[in-house]
Amino acid sequence: MKEEFKQIARDLVEKMSVEEAASQLRYDSPAIERLGIKAYNWWNEGLHGLARAGTATVFPQAIALASMFDTKLLEEIADVIATETRAKYNESRKYDDRDIYKGITLWSPNINIFRDARWGRGQETFGEDPYLTSRLGVAFIKGIQGKGKYLKCSACAKHYAVHSGPEALRHGFDAKVSQKDIEETYVPAFRAAIEDADVSGVMGAYNRVNGEAACASKEFIEGRLLKRWKFDGYFVSDFLALKDIHENHKLTEDSVHSAALALNNGCDLNAGVTYRDLMKAYEQGLVSEERIRDAAVKVLTIRAALGMFSDDCEYDRIDLAMSDTDGSNELAYRAAVRSTVLLKNDGFLPVNREEIKSVAVIGPTACSQAVLEGNYNGVSSRYVTNLEGVRAGVKPGTRVYYSEGCHLFENRVQNLAAEDDRLSEAQAVAEASDMVIMYVGLDSTIEGEEGDTGNAFAAGDKTSLLLPEPQRRLFDRVAKTGKPIVLVVNTGSAMDLSHEEESCRAILQSWYPGQAGGRAIADIIFGQASPGGRLPVTFYRDGTQPPIEDYSMKGRTYRYHKSEPLYPFGFGLSYSRFEYSDMTVQPLQEGPALCRVSVKVKNVGAFAADDVVQVYIDKLPGEKLENGLNNDMKDLAELLLPDNQPVWSLAGFERVSLEPGAEETVTLEISGLSFETVLENGSRPVLAGQYRIYAGGHQPDKRSAVLAGNECLSCDLKVEKQ
Fold this sequence. Notes:
Layout: H1 3-14, H2 18-23, E1 28-29, E2 40-41, H3 62-67, H4 71-94, H5 130-145, E3 156-160, E4 174-175, H6 179-186, H7 188-195, E5 201-204, E6 208-209, E7 212-213, H8 218-228, E8 234-236, H9 241-247, H10 255-264, H11 278-283, H12 289-305, H13 326-339, E9 341-345, E10 358-362, H14 370-373, H15 386-393, E11 399-403, H16 423-431, E12 435-441, H17 469-479, E13 485-490, H18 498-501, E14 506-509, H19 517-525, H20 557-560, E15 578-587, E16 593-603, E17 609-619, H21 636-639, E18 649-658, E19 663-671, E20 689-696, H22 702-708, E21 713-719
Parallel strand pairs: 3-5, 4-6, 5-8, 10-11, 10-12, 12-13, 13-14
Antiparallel strand pairs: 1-2, 6-7, 9-14, 15-16, 16-19, 17-18, 17-20, 20-21
């Protein structure tokens, strides 16, 4: 934070009593009228659009935004989110409305690692890979915070750290995790948010990590955030997480001691009620006046940086007319197209509208508004459902039949009807049509956060990777008609579609695609747009993942999973074909980049389309330890276990748009961080030796090569010294 904002905060806190300073450490901070400080509620959400505050542009869910593999477009989306947040804040202030969700401190993005496909909140993340999550998190934060004198809005990276389910246990769960997994997987995105994006806030998690409450962890807050990464913003607890410290984690005896533990270990702001007992902790000598004032300076510095105590903030001019615009709607549409992943296509797509006289639209997500939204969402004035998209997308005069087919997860639609009461209708609709578009999946009422969903039996998590049983029965009934099926999957997470894959002509993973989702999918199906999304998560076969309670990375994500996946991380088909050539790797002697990778990409197909150039790094067997480690690392066998290393890791990516016949040379600088080997003790040396670098439109694994029909290029690079 700029020194001038810190000085404004110091001057204000100096004039406060201790009690007044303590009052500002609550998320629902009261006014101090004599100092010109208005009441302020810190809690606002902007995960994929301004949330929970009324009308706003609803962009695709975060996991969908990740599948774009597009930092530029994501930053543009985040900038729109910040604009609409400012507009709501400015308008609300006119009416002295200072309620929750009306502020300009956004508790987004969620940069946890989506390590287990069953986790209901994984939809809020940017996927399973630390590098992808880091780059997308940085882009999102920059878009939210802006480039002006003041912060446009304040971004907050959450949930720090080592947090990804199970939802049902989160309030008392202790995530047991190795130093290697912490350093290699769970914290890189937070480090990047601080060092590369200067994020102004970090939110703690509900769980414990190796015994310490995440919102009161000396190791993670003081040791990593403040000392190692020089974090200069504010730290906030998750809502009611400090209450868990004494009620569920049993680390303290009561609320007073929990408040003291959290504040003393670096938690500046309490989302919840525990800091209402902060003055009791002070009176009992459990916290110092200095620490209370230090935390107050931190939170008021953020408010100063947002222009709350100034009259020259450029963002005060943003008004209602700049929210929910035609431009933001088109941006939501572009994002929905770019985030859609084509998982299978036997040549059936795109469909020629001129040749189709009738279309059957079948499935429980076909006419759903909720499936467009995901969780942590706003309310759009411009929803286009899947069914509406098809009706608008077909040639005039084409007959569109519709059947819900089944309930989302229950065994009947009408309570008094027999089981599977919509199957006969679905079959009839399919039989009457030239083709079938089936919309299946989940929505945030059964996949999401504990307490927010109707999925009481699993607290928002999935119990398996299969579609709900009524939907599987629906699919089989329709498949028996023999009509060509395009399967559109609306979920926020990976599913096992191995059964459905056998009987359909094409599969589109549409995620929770936002307000323009129905239009985007229809345009893709009928050839008005080309899909270009890539999977930010691995699609596993059900039953191949470790228990969700196990926080070891062994067997998880593309870097450590041993079984063949159904669809790999980074995979996605196109309507066009791309050829890669002329790969070069140039070592660099200075700066953070260790090498520069260049590769030529050519669109050799008939469609204008996007491809995502992906660069992965692997260390060649037998040469990993040449010149070894530092001499003071005595027992190498315990520090570097070859079977506990990633098979390879994403180190760079760039999305390119090419017309048929066009080509482009893509050049990526690869950070020295990507060459570091994380040892069992969490240290990160760059080992001298041979590295293999791959470039292509997907991972360098066999499954991706088979699905995509081509292999990655590769070059070797010798690193002489650490």
